[in-house]
Automatic annotation (TrEMBL):
<dbReference type="GO" id="GO:0046872">
    <property type="term" value="F:metal ion binding"/>
</dbReference>
<keyword id="KW-0645">Protease</keyword>
<feature type="binding site">
    <location>
        <position position="115"/>
    </location>
    <ligand>
        <name>Zn(2+) 2</name>
    </ligand>
</feature>
<dbReference type="InterPro" id="IPR011650">
    <property type="entry name" value="Peptidase_M20_dimer"/>
</dbReference>
<dbReference type="GO" id="GO:0004180">
    <property type="term" value="F:carboxypeptidase activity"/>
</dbReference>
<feature type="active site" description="Proton acceptor">
    <location>
        <position position="148"/>
    </location>
</feature>
<keyword id="KW-0121">Carboxypeptidase</keyword>
<comment type="similarity">
    <text>Belongs to the peptidase M42 family.</text>
</comment>
<dbReference type="Pfam" id="PF01546">
    <property type="entry name" value="Peptidase_M20"/>
</dbReference>
<dbReference type="InterPro" id="IPR036264">
    <property type="entry name" value="Bact_exopeptidase_dim_dom"/>
</dbReference>
<keyword id="KW-0479">Metal-binding</keyword>
<feature type="binding site">
    <location>
        <position position="115"/>
    </location>
    <ligand>
        <name>Zn(2+) 1</name>
    </ligand>
</feature>
<keyword id="KW-0862">Zinc</keyword>
<feature type="binding site">
    <location>
        <position position="149"/>
    </location>
    <ligand>
        <name>Zn(2+) 2</name>
    </ligand>
</feature>
<dbReference type="InterPro" id="IPR008007">
    <property type="entry name" value="Peptidase_M42"/>
</dbReference>
<dbReference type="GO" id="GO:0004177">
    <property type="term" value="F:aminopeptidase activity"/>
</dbReference>
<keyword id="KW-0378">Hydrolase</keyword>
Length: 394
């Protein structure tokens, strides 16, 4: 049997939160509204705190992760529910509007922001339902992350000690309700600067060593050797890579002395991901040395890499997976286990010792001006959050 919720109030919470601008690093107003509603529902102000994650993130932020401890009304295992507060920039200025079974933004060229205000509202609904006193519940911890959309910065830099011990964890993010993401790929980003030798392209082209040629040779060799796109190695293991940014040159009569590139590598196997990064670095170093001017002078590169998140995979029989499966089944849906090829807050939660399953809330076409929220899916996500938080699932 699924949890009973006030569906009108649940939808109102989503509409209220979604109308508040809150891109990455500017989540303070969203957090303040969540706190206001929690206190209005009866949460003690002493149970509400913020960590200092925003002081360690790559981009400074207004506020850290919002963490709330509700002591519960009965003894039982503690549940952790999480979601992220920030939206991508296209959603700033959203005007959430209900149209039948969907919500969209009435502002031209503006995304809705259901990713992830729907998750925020699902957590808030669960908390408000339990605080109303209509049903007993064991201890509950809720965490609203900041800066997810710019590289999982809030979960990466969270103060996990403020979460405390818990038995199971559910993370609410984008996608369909019945898809249980129990694992995700690991990702690493690279920055490559190629330094060639400038010369006049008409008067003395032979005195130059083109950084564009160096980078092009490197990319061609990586493509030829199977290190770009879908990577499958003969000795086993697979991954993905992409060079997504290539910038350089500002005149046709100059042999280009510098180009800047940004790339990424992903794999469920950390060794394969590391091998991809090494192959990319080696290719650029070799090409920079081999492309020379008439005097035998070549180029050089500056290379740096940054791990965005490590891969993880949960035990299918673990408490978080079991609770999520039972709650999804209770709302009449068939749970589908999934391994993601994109990063999640759950990646960094796992590194902090938190084993979280990720569920969607009915978001469609996220990160676009066409974004929609399926209201029946969202309400089921609220029911799932409430059921897990109340201890109705094993």
């Amino acid at each position: 049997m699924s949890a009973t919720i006030d569906t009108d109030a649940a939808l109102d919470r989503f509409l209220q939160l979604t109308a508040i601008p809150g891109p990455s690093g500017k989540e303070k107003a969203v957090a303040a509204e969540i706190v206001r509603q929690l206190e209005a529902a009866g949460a003690d102000s002493s149970a509400i705190q913020f960590d200092d994650a925003h002081r360690r993130t790559r981009m400074s932020g207004e506020v850290g992760n919002l963490i709330v401890h509700l002591p519960g009304t009965v003894e039982g295992p503690t549940t952790l529910l999480t979601a992220h507060m920030d939206t991508v920039p296209v959603c700033v200025g959203s005007q959430p509007t209900v149209d039948g079974e969907y919500v969209y933004s009435a502002a031209d060229g503006t995304g809705l922001g259901a990713d992830n205000r729907a998750g925020c509202a699902a957590l808030l609904t669960a908390a408000c339902e339990l605080l109303s006193g209509n049903q007993p519940y064991p201890p509950l911890v809720l965490c609203w992350f900041v800066q997810e959309e710019i590289g999982l910065e809030g979960s990466r830099n969270m103060n996990a000690q403020l979460i405390g011990p818990h038995h199971r964890a559910i993370n609410f993010d984008g996608g369909t309700v019945e898809k249980l993401t129990i694992g995700a790929i690991g990702g690493e980003r690279m920055t490559i600067d190629v330094q060639g030798i400038a010369s006049h392209a008409g008067v003395a082209p032979e005195q130059g060593a083109s950084a564009i040629v160096m980078a092009s040779e490197a990319i061609a060799s990586l493509h030829r050797d199977g290190w770009l796109g879908y990577v499958r190695r003969p000795q086993g293991g697979e991954g993905r890579s992409n060079i997504g940014v290539f910038q350089g040159g500002d005149a046709t009569n100059v042999v280009t002395p510098h180009v800047h590139l940004r790339a990424e590598a992903r794999s469920h196997d950390p060794e394969v991901r590391t091998a991809i990064v090494s192959a990319i670095r080696d290719a650029f170093e070799s090409a920079a040395a081999e492309v020379q001017n008439a005097d035998g002078q070549g180029g050089r590169i500056t290379f740096s890499s940054h791990v965005d998140y490590e891969a993880f995979c949960l035990d299918e029989q673990g408490p978080s997976v079991s609770a999520a499966q039972a709650a999804v089944s209770a709302v009449g849906r068939e749970p589908l286990l999934n391994i993601s090829n994109g990063g999640l807050d759950a990646n960094w939660m796992f590194r902090h010792g938190i084993q979280a399953v990720t569920l969607g809330c009915g978001q469609r076409n996220v990160h676009t001006a066409d974004e929609r929220l399926c209201i029946p899916d969202y309400l089921d996500a609220c029911r799932i959050a409430t059921a897990v938080a109340s201890g109705q699932t094993p």
